[in-house]
Each structure stands twice: as C-alpha cells, then as structure tokens.
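Entry 0007
Protein: DUF465 domain-containing protein
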Amino acid sequence: MDQREIALLEKYMPTDPELKSLWEDHMLYSKQVDKIESKAFRTPTEDQTLKQLKKQKLEGKTKLMTILDRLKKQEH
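Output (structure tokens):
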C-alpha cells in the first residue's frame, strides 16, 4: 500500500465503518499469518489455517482496494 492509500485510510476510516472493519481484519490476518509463518515447523493443520488466512486476507484487501480506488477518484 502506498502513502496516498494510507492517507485515504486515515482520512475516511473514522466515518466509514466498512473501510475501518476491512482494515482491522486485514491487520489481524497479517499478524496471524506472520505468527504461523515464523514457526520453523508447521503442522498440517497450521498449514491449512495459513492457507485459509491468506485467502481471507486477499479477499479483504481486494475489497479494501476497491473502496480506496473509488475514494481516489472522488478526490480528483
């Protein structure tokens, strides 16, 4: 994410509950992914959880970027 996108997040999160929720979910998934990926060895269950978390994170980021793209166009 670039600086402009982060600035838009900071500007609109207080008034856009969907944007705020998507960002919070993205950050939560990032922390969970990092925690699992930092393990030297993972169980098959952890590997499956990791795949699911990455999928959820990507889906959320796609929605987040769609909103940010719309906001960028509004600001022009």
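Curator remark: Residues 3-75 form one domain. The chain has a mean pLDDT of 95.
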